[in-house]
Amino acid sequence: MAGVFCLLYLWFAIFPGQAAPETFQYFSAKQVSAGRDYQRLPRIISILGFVLQIGVLIWFVFGKGKDGIGSGARNHMVYAVLLWLVLRLTSLPVQYFRGYYWQKKWGFLTQSLFAWWKDYFLEAGIELVLFTAGLLILYFVIGHWSKTWWVIIAGLFSLWLLIQTYLWPVIVAPLFNEFTPVHNPAITEMVEELAERAGIEVDEVLVMDAGRRTTKANAYFTGLGRTKRIVLYDTLLQNYPPEQVKAVVAHEMGHWKLGHITKGVGLGILGSFILWWLAGIMLSRTIPFGFRYGPEVMGMVVLFLILSSFISSPLQNGISRYMEREADRFAVILTEDVQSSVDLQVNISRKNLSDLAPAPFIEWFGYSHPSAVKRIEQMRENY
Ligand SMILES: [Zn+2]
Known about the structure:
Number of helices: 17
Number of strands: 4
Distance between the termini: 40 Å
Oligomer: single chain
Radius of gyration: 23 Å
Shape: globular
Bound molecules: zinc ion
Strand content: under 5%
């Protein structure tokens, strides 16, 4: 199934087909082809990178790698670190290409190569600690509760999802960026007025120094309970007119008011129980009952997780696109200003070089937000 998805994705990345006629109501043919030129190669490279990663992982878990490096690591801790290294090294070419080379080539990156590697190693270090700890817990639980292990792991995983959503904005995000409360009185006033109309208590609107890495603009809503916050990129405040910034803030308030983070975590917990239940079936069918298994069981589970998360991306993205549409609708009704929301979409997708006419399969499979034209048409329909 993953193979079929890869082939379809490659096909539609290379041959996206004609752009729908309504695209040209908002964008010129030149803009459409610029977006496509910018997106095509990273898509192809990502899929090839994914295939490479799965191939090497299969080699490491089941093939010659198991007899060579894999079985040399009878120690489960060493095995977990080696597994992490396999994943890291096989994804490095794609990460370097997408994150550094391509961004630099198109003039979006404002970072030096040194600063890029610094980010890379910081992130890799955090991942190494969490990944190894997670795998060792998994190995321990499988070893002690060979039948019910998946329930315990799903429970722990759900707990981790909650903790991570709560703590990520206050612990991890500040390691990479500086977050400061909005100082501009015009924006503070706008935020207060919108929050009052929306009937929500917005206590944290922060500006992130995104400009140290990119010229692209964005915003997001994150956190749980007391760590809930709206984050605006400094590039948004600098390069977009106030009424478009207002449209962004209203959209993020939509996520807030409609409880999207809580719903996302809830769905994540549900998904985690389904996923680990399937992992339980997978293991019990792969490894004969009563057989005493070695560390390679961790490799099997990781391979299973990567493949299932790839296969389920249409579902995950479908849910995300649904929530984005809800937040768009909310923003338009709250601001009573469809035009600014439309202008924002046009402006931001031009500047960020979005694909303005993605092939339907690519959007269905990989888009967390609807494509620009769909968003615009929906906003105009809704008001
Ligand atoms: Zn959104």
